[in-house]
Amino acid sequence: MASSDTSLPSPAGRPDEPEPEVEDAFDRLVEEGEDRLRRPLLPLLSVGLLGGIDVGTGVLAYLVVEHATGSKLLAGLAFSLGFVALLLARSELFTENFLVPVTALAARHGTLGQLLRLWSVTLVTNLAAGWVITWVIVRALPELSGTVVSSARHYAQLGIDLQSFCLAVLAGAVITLMTRMQHATESMGVKLVPAVLFGALLAGAQLFHCVLDSLLMFAAFHVGAPFGYWHWLGLLGWSALGNLVGGLFLVTAVRLLRVPHRLAEARSDG
Which domains does the chain carry? Predict the structure, then answer.
């Protein structure tokens, strides 16, 4: 008796091929990632500085709401304003560059040197602009000083241990997943949804994010924090490492496994 194959074909025609929507999203990631990797220095400096300012507006909203309500969850929801600003203003945050340019690099549409340049310039400019905007915030609203110090103290006391590293891994995964969801659609209205939800999750759950937490600590420095810049610098390196692990390994690498054929084709095209 002849055997019958009861398996159903995948939407793309073969079981090992991704759906067309996944391939379209991959193509958009490669195209945008290549543009970011090859961006001239001045525009790169500009989007990084603007990214720090945009996140700073989120920190302002966070501090105002926490000061008024005492609720971390409501403050986290308010912080999502910063991610909405990042999206609509097309500025960039350091941790948003774990999916898009890395996908382009995996497709051989860029180099490792270009990626390291993008990461380093974006992080430094995010922090530089964040230092300035937090100085403006605490000078404009001195009544927030107590809230600033108490919010920053939470991150300053995390230390360098397994718990803080896991919090940083979660932060990197959350931001990279947000980026992936936003690149799954071309609708700006739909893109706003993950910006609000994941921004609120990041700040409301007090995950360990190298830029957000640095801005809170900067604000505390401006009003006389009981900790110093050397302490912040150690935490910055630890949180950035955890963010990288979460973004690259928990999200980006796993997503690339879904498009092996399209990745091979992109490599040959590159």
Answer: 20-269 (1.20.1080.10)
